[in-house]
Design a protein that fits this description.
The protein has about 500 residues and is of the alpha+beta class. Helix content is about 40%, strand content about 20%.
């Protein structure tokens, strides 16, 4: 049941059992990508650590509601408990109400959660009483009166029943006494609820109609959360009239001042910037709210680096040297050495010790051990010697590997790569070669071959010649005769052609 249901509940259950679902042989296919994302999200929220539930995670996992509402219940005060417990059992205001609905007297502007709760509270206080059903203390209703009220309000009776059941289950799980009468979400209670949501923020979050990963989201048409700003709630996906996937949200609007109140300053990071045609280091500071960057600032580092930023500054410089992105007197020589070492490493299939990126970064950091300012960095000699890093015999063996293949009298460039830990060699062919070459024409190398063709700036690649030919056929042949190996017919000025007697630019010769 859990494998086919909510992935977050599955992660919590596995963490409670100290197992990893990706290591198990399961009867139901597991969406491993979704599982990994959920595990990362719950780890960041402090519910899971090293694959096991934290104390906070155990409190949340024990509650019989969705994870987001369970987090709010754990943090809710006694005054907030009824609102959170009642809203936790309601799927959504949209699914709770019909198209023609009457929200007069229960509408809480800016919050679908509290509007739905007020409908539940009105039903409980008007037609419900506390009873016991199958051992559970819960509110039970006069069915006739509830049905009449639901028709008038445009509310689904099942949604009220589900909300009352969820509320009772939450109270029992928290070992609290279910009240006979529940409070309405008035202005003061609304402010407390919104503050709780903004402080914990366990829901999906949309700021200015965009998610943290840049997805466009619109406020649901039936929502009362407003038309913009920030909304914490549940994302729902649908297809529009053209079949395009869209997303909408309903939930509770969060005021900007509360978002800034609970936003956290990220740790300062050292970055490389360019100012007036010269490079320098700067400190980047950000203000973030649950993944969103509210603001960021750059402050240039002048003079000696602050002691707390020395290590970060040296690491930034080492990474920039490794990428060839920083101005330095040794930049050209260093870039050539790094490119040569990278080529040797790829030719060795990753087996060559001392030429991988981590080792080169460590070597550069060691040479920057005394750098404490931009000026001292410019005066520090930095070098990577391929001759010193690679033994002569190993270098001679790698140099002897072919840089191209001779196929039917033509040369085809060869590029060495490492994919998923496996050494391969990519052969670049022209389209005519790709159609003409056969497997019998290929030499035997110490690693598998893949085949590629460049077409209009795009590289088309396949693991076999047959697959490459099929790929080229599917994407259509080249319209440029220069891309083919065969001799093309002249398009103009040929025998009997219409352009005979004209110059190459189309003008008649004189």
């Amino acid at each position: 049941f859990q494998l086919a249901g909510d992935v977050e509940r599955l992660v919590l259950t596995c963490a409670a059992l100290a197992v990893d679902a990706t290591d198990l042989e399961l009867p139901v296919p597991l969406d491993r990508a979704a599982y990994a994302r959920a595990l990362q999200r719950l780890t960041l929220r402090g519910l899971v650590e090293d694959g096991r539930l934290t104390a906070y995670g155990r409190s949340v996992e024990a509650l019989p509601v969705e994870r987001a509402w369970a987090e709010l219940l754990v943090h809710a005060s006694a005054e907030q408990l009824a609102l959170v417990a009642g809203a936790s059992g309601i799927d959504s205001l949209h699914r709770m109400t019909k198209e023609e609905r009457d929200l007069h007297g229960v509408l809480v502007p800016g919050s679908d959660h509290l509007t739905a709760y007020n409908l539940l509270a009105e039903a409980i206080n008007s037609f419900g009483k506390v009873g016991e059903v199958h051992g559970l203390r819960r509110h039970i209703f006069d069915e006739a009166l509830l049905s009449e009220w639901a028709d008038r309000r445009g509310v689904l009776v099942k949604a009220i029943e589900d909300g009352a059941l969820g509320m009772a289950a939450a109270y029992r799980a928290l070992d609290e006494v279910l009240p006979d009468v529940v409070p309405y979400a008035n202005r003061e209670r609304r402010a407390d609820f919104v503050d709780l949501v903004a402080r914990i923020e366990p829901f999906d979050l949309v700021l200015d109609e965009r998610t943290v990963d840049g997805q466009d989201v619109r406020i649901a048409k039936t929502s009362v959360a407003g038309n913009g700003g920030s909304v914490a709630g549940t994302l729902r996906y649908f297809a529009d009239r053209t079949g395009t996937a869209r997303a909408s949200i309903e939930g509770t609007a969060l005021p900007h001042e509360l978002i800034r109140k609970y936003a956290a300053s990220g740790p300062p990071s050292v970055v490389l910037v360019r100012h007036k045609h010269r490079q320098e280091l700067a400190v980047s500071r950000t203000l973030r709210y649950f993944g969103f960057t509210l603001e960021s600032g750059i402050e240039r580092l002048r003079g000696e680096f602050p002691p707390a930023l020395v290590a970060a500054a040296r690491l930034t410089l080492a990474n920039a040297l490794l990428a060839g992105d920083v101005d330095h007197p040794a930049r050209g020589r260093l870039s050539r050495a790094i490119a040569s070492l990278d080529e040797y490493w790829r030719r060795s299939g990753g087996a060559l010790v001392g030429t991988d990126q981590e080792t080169l970064r460590s070597l550069l950091l060691a040479q920057l051990g005394d750098v404490d300012s931009w000026e001292s960095f410019q005066q520090t000699a930095v070098d990577l010697d391929a001759d010193a890093l690679i033994a002569h015999d190993a270098r001679a063996h790698l140099d002897a590997l072919p840089g191209s293949l001779h196929l039917r009298g033509d040369a085809a460039p060869l590029e060495y790569q490492i994919r998923n830990g496996q050494a391969i060699a990519r052969v670049y062919l022209r389209e005519g070669q790709a159609r003409r070459i056969r497997n019998s024409d290929l030499p035997t190398l110490d690693r598998p071959l893949t085949f590629a063709v460049r077409r209009r700036g795009e590289v088309m690649e396949a693991e076999t010649l047959e697959a490459l030919a099929l790929l080229l056929e599917q994407h259509g042949g080249s319209r440029n005769p220069r891309n083919e190996d065969s001799h093309a017919r002249p398009q103009h000025g040929g025998r009997g052609g219409r352009d005979r007697g004209r110059s190459p630019r189309g003008r008649r010769r004189r």
